[in-house]
Design brief:
There is one protein chain. The protein has about 120 residues and is mainly beta. The protein has no helices and 10 strands.
Length: about 120
């Protein structure tokens, strides 16, 4: 079983940046492809970004490409999401999980609110 704890969210203005962190328990973290996902009010949870187990390969949703960067530190069992040039449309609760996600692994998420 893996437990995932997201942090780093907050309230920012459009154009500003945030860095999210996801700390994972479990000895097999480094074997997993990991992803970030987000859920805006009244909408489904959507894919944002993913990173391979080694960190050598990444992919992004079109809406965040060029603005967000996913990375990981397997020594710290942590995956990050650097978010630059934030837009009001990025407002959501952000979650990390394996990619594809496993239902039982969803954590509480971290709220990101971007004001215009």
């Amino acid at each position: 079983q893996v437990q995932l704890v997201e942090s780093g969210g907050g309230l920012v203005q459009a154009g500003e940046s945030l860095r999210l962190s996801c700390a994972a328990s479990g000895r097999t973290f480094s074997n997993y492809v990991m992803g970030w996902f987000r859920q805006a009010p009244g909408k489904e949870r959507d894919f944002v970004a993913a990173i391979s187990s080694s960190g050598g390969s990444t992919n992004y949703a079109d809406s965040v490409k060029g603005r967000f960067t996913i990375s990981r530190d397997n020594g710290k069992n942590t995956v990050y999401l650097q978010m630059n040039s934030l837009e009001p449309e990025d407002t959501a609760v952000y979650y990390c999980n394996k990619n594809p996600p496993i239902t039982s692994y969803w954590g509480q998420g971290t709220q990101v609110t971007v004001s215009s």
